Amino acid sequence: MQTIRYGGDYNPEQWPEETWREDVRLMREAGVNLVSLGVFNWGIIEPAPGEYDWSGLDEVIGLLHEGGIGVDLGTPTSSPPAWLRKAHPEIRLVDREGRTLAGGSRHGVCPSAPAYRDACASIVEQLAARYGGHPAVELWHVHNEYGWANVECYCEASTAAFQAWLAAKYGDVDRLNAAWGTAFWGLVYRSFDQIEAPAVAPPGVNPALQLDWKRFSNDEHIANYRLQREIIARRSKAPATTNFMIPNCEGMDYWRWAGEVDVVANNHYLIAEREDHQIELSMSADLTRAVAGGPWMIMEHSTSAVNWQPRNIAKTPGEMRRNSLAHVARGADGLMFFQWRASRAGAEKFHSAMVPHGGTDTQVWRDVAALGRDLERLSGVVGTDVAADVAMLWDWESWWALELEWRPSVDLKYRERVEAYYAALWRQHVTVDFAHPEADLSGYRLVVAPSSYVLTDAASKNLRGYVENGGHLVVSYFSGIVDEHDTVHPGAHPGALRETLGLWIEEFHPLREGEELGLDSASGAGIGGGAAGRIWSEHVRLDGARAVAHFAAGPDRGRPALTRHDLGRGTAWYAATALDGPTGLNDLLATAMEAAGVERPQGIPANVEVVRRGGHRFLINHTAQDVQVPGGGVDALDGTAYDGPVPVPAGGVVILADA
Ligand code: GAL
Question: How far is CA 372 from CA 4, 78, 228, 321, in A?
Answer without folding.
Answer: 9, 29, 32, 10
